[in-house]
Amino acid sequence: MREYPIDKTRNIGIIAHIDAGKTTVSERVLFYTGVSHKIGEVHEGDTVMDWMEQERERGITITSAAITAFWTPQGLAKDKKNEYKFNLIDTPGHIDFTVEVKRSLRVLDGAVVVFDGVAGVEPQSETNWRYADDFKVPRICFINKLDRLGASFERSYQSILERLTPYAVRMQIPDGEEDQFKGIVDLLVMKYYIFEGAHGELVVEKPIPDHLKERADELHGVLIEKIVEQDEQAMTEYLEGKEISLERLRQIVRKATIENKIVPVFTGSALKNRGVQFMLDAVVYYLPSPADLPPVKGLDASGKETEREFKDEVPFSALAFKVATDPYVGQLTFFRVYSGTLTSGSYVYNSTNGQQERISRIILMHANERQEIKEVLAGDIAATVGLKATRTGDTLTDQENTIILENIVFPEPVISLRIEPKTKADQEKMSLSLKKLSDEDPTFRIKSDVETAETIISGMGELHLEIIVDRLKREFGVNVNVGRPQVAYKETIRESAQAEGKYVRQSGGRGQYGHVWMKVEPMDRGAGFEFVNAIKGGVVPNEYLPAIQKGVREVLDKGVLAGFPMVDLKATAYDGSYHEVDSSEIAFKIAAATAFQEGVKRAKPVLLEPIMKVEIIIPDKFMGEVTGDVSSRRGRIEQMNDRAVLSLKVIDAKVPLSEMFGYATSIRSLTEGRGTFTMEFSHYEEVPNNIAQLIIEGKK
Ligand code: GDP
After folding, report:
1. Integer CA distances (angstroms), 56 to 40, 42, 65, 467, in order
2. What's 610-696's CATH class?
3. Which phi and psi (to 5°) does residue 525 adopt?
4. 101 touches 128 (CB < 8 A)
5. Are 352 and 394 in contact (CB under 8 A)?
6. What is the CA radius of gyration of the chain?
7. CB of 700 within 8 A of CB of 694?
8. Contact (CB, 8 A) for 492 and 427
9. What is the rounded distance in angstroms from the CA atom of residue 63 to the CA atom of residue 101?
10. Domain ranges of the chain
């Protein structure tokens, strides 16, 4: 039985730049929605969302768990409690955790984007905004920290319009700013509110103060026009001078927000307990329920594209979007149900890897407690424990009617680190713990170096790996020594070439005979690897094909220049010969490896390196030093823009990752501590010759 109709469910995320106040806003949300009974300030280190110890210390949110809460908009009857169910999906602000942002965007239906009212739009707000665009996530904005010195609603609102979207529409204006921030005018209903009670929980309506009347009237007019523009019928009535009901206006805003044609903007101060309740009302009014969105797409068992409606009575399908290690219950798998119903004690099929899983318990995570539930329905989010083979991004489905939902595409790691256990005891726990961490995070990989018996971990950036090592210690009690971070170089070829590989031993007894001709050709950047069998007329029997591919694969994995894996090339086996008695798999494997290696060596092999997209924000006066420094790091400056606020400059550049180690320290010292930067992986590019030589000689 459905306790909450699907149209009264909201799966939302709060997206923000670090420090914009996401944690504080989330806490207020949990407080007002009645689950969290105490407001924990971030600096006290006892927030509800950040339950991982190190997140508290770093003050950033890394994991994306989901928390369930309930809300009734303030306008609705007082006796109606818990009218709406919210699943609050946590999203991180740090760019090294792009994958976390993406995976949460994949499963949420709408987002609240929080801004710092002093800084307005910041670099990561832009990056995250673009991701949200990619996933077509409907959004509302909340300009936070209006009580802070230097805060400006108007300037922040303009920065959203200029830098993020022309569709932003202000729904409120503040009464006063900085320490004069007293209340909020709702421009739609034309009412004024202040916030009383220890935690602002009492929203008190007052007449609009005189000094705001004129401006509020004017902006109300602008708002109504922007709304009716979205609806032809309403527009006609408006032009005829007819009054359009509040409910109808809200419906129009809702529809336009869901279609990404309007982005409503709200404001307040989470810290001072102002405005968050209206933001929650807006989630109800304007952000979609699962039923407002198109059916989810996927591939059925025969690989045909298919759809699933958000209905309880159709076959079950869900996406596992987060695997987390919980200190109390062990491994928790968070999943979002797209269709059907799941009951505890039942079996599901993991259609991504073909394994069956038993769902022993279904758990709803509240802010301060876990609630065991019997079933979970379409559109909802819940967690389960004890899944054995399910990783982040996998689809769970009904056994008979399988579907593979569109997966989240994760980028390849660009940086790696050698680690070794400090003691024997650490050694035993290390591999198990690393496996758990990699189940949680698909951008984190583990590899062992067969030659040195060392373990190599790789990920998306320095901070990413730092945090992994930290978690090994804190959560799993594993102490490790770490090496220097290494760039994940790759190898490829520039030209086509052909080569022969022959492995023949025929001197007495049973011999060996393998013989292959191979052609190698470059492919486009990002194309990966392709093997083609073009051997005709049975000159080499098909049974040796797997061995030939294995030989190629071995060379592919370790490259020919400096031990890096090869990408973006095609290998075609097109000729060869065999011997009735002496041919063996081993012989063909060796022959293929020789042919492939020789071919690659003739095809002008080169090294590729990851290039990062870097955005640097600095006060004008440091322009010369900073751009000079970027150039000396082999960086290409692509754009320089003025930031309206505080005469700042924004530099967009592409810089090789290998030149960006420790950049945080450099930018600080170059700019007297005032510069900031963000970076993310962009693409792979050829390493210039002189530098490639150093890498090959092991000098870099
Ligand atoms: P997050 O990094 O986005 O999660 O941001 P936090 O919620 O941790 O907030 C960063 C800092 O800003 C903390 O010191 C908060 O106390 C402070 N902060 C958050 N919201 C407000 C606000 O509305 N006004 C003021 N003045 N400070 C705030």
Report:
1. 12, 8, 15, 13
2. alpha beta
3. -60, 130
4. yes
5. yes
6. 29
7. yes
8. no
9. 9
10. 8-292, 296-405, 418-488, 491-603, 610-696
- What residues are paired with 112 via a beta bridge? 14, 140
- Mean per-residue pLDDT for 375-390? 91
Q: Which candidate, 568, 533, 564, places its Cα nearest to that of 549?
A: 533
Of all protein residues, the one whose alpha carbon is nearest to atom 10 of ligand 1 is 19
Residue whose CA is at the smallest distance from ligand 1 atom 16: 42
User: Cα(24) to centroid of ligand 1, in Å?
Assistant: 6
Does ligand 1 lie within 6 Å of residue 442's CB atom?
no
- Least reliable range by pLDDT among 29-43, 338-352, 386-400, 646-660: 29-43
The residue with greater pLDDT, 343 or 408, is 343
- Establish whether residue 21 lines the binding site of ligand 1, counting it when its CB lies within 6 angstroms of any ligand atom: yes
Q: What's the mean pLDDT in 352-357?
A: 90
Ligand 1 pocket residue status of 42, Cβ below 6 Å:
yes
Which strand (E) or helix (H) includes residue 186?
strand 183-186
Between 698 and 477, residue with greater pLDDT: 477
Contact predicate 510/569, CB 8 Å: no
Tokens read off for 36: 């969290």
Instruction: For residue 65, give the nearest of 327, 405, 270 by alpha carbon.
Output: 327
> Tokens 């990966």 appear where?
528
DSSP secondary structure letters along 194-256: EEESTTS-EEEEEPPPHHHHHHHHHHHHHHHHHHHTT-HHHHHHHHTT----HHHHHHHHHHH
Ligand 1 center–CA 373 separation, angstroms: 34
Q: Do domains 418-488 and 491-603 have the same CATH topology?
A: no
Residue minimizing CA distance to atom 5 of ligand 1: 21
Q: Is the CB of 312 under 6 A from ligand 1?
A: no
Q: What is the architecture, at CATH level 2, of domain 491-603?
A: 2-Layer Sandwich (3.30)
- Confidence category of residue 300, pLDDT binned at 50, 70, 90: confident
Determine if ligand 1 sits within 6 Å of the CB of residue 273. no
Q: What's at 18, amino acid-wise?
A: I
Q: Options 1.10.645.10, 3.90.1140.10, 3.40.190.10, 3.30.70.870; which CATH number does 418-488 get?
A: 3.30.70.870
Distances (CA, A) of 422 to 54, 229, 427: 21, 66, 7
Q: Say yes or no to pLDDT of 594 above 70.
A: yes
Q: Per-residue pLDDT averaged across 398-409, rounded?
A: 81
Tell me if 18 CB under 6 Å of ligand 1: yes
Q: Cα torsion at 14, 20, 24, 26 (round to 10°)? A: 0
pLDDT digits 0-9 by tens, 140-151: 999 999 999 999
Q: In this predicted model, what pLDDT tens digit does every residue of 172-185 receive, in sequence order?
A: 999 999 999 999 99
Query: Ligand 1 within 6 A of 22 CB?
Result: yes
Question: What one-character-per-residue DSSP string does 468-534 give?
Answer: HHHHHHHHH---EEE---EE--EEEESS-EEEEEEEEE-SSSS-EEEEEEEEEEE--TT--EEEEE-
- The class that CATH gives domain 8-292 is alpha beta
The span from the CA of 111 to the CA of 366, in Å, is 19
Class of domain 296-405: mainly beta
Q: Are 322 and 305 in contact (CB under 8 A)?
A: no
Residue owning tokens 């996401």: 22
How many C-beta neighbours within 10 Å does residue 585 have? 15
- Checking DSSP bridges between strand 66-71 and strand 9-16, what pairing results, if any? unpaired
Mean pLDDT of the chain: 87
**CA–CA dist 163, 157 (Å, integer):** 10
Q: How open is the CA angle 476-481-486, to the nearest 5 degrees? A: 110
| Structure token pair of residue 635 | 């960086």
- Which neighbouring-strand residues pair with 70? 85
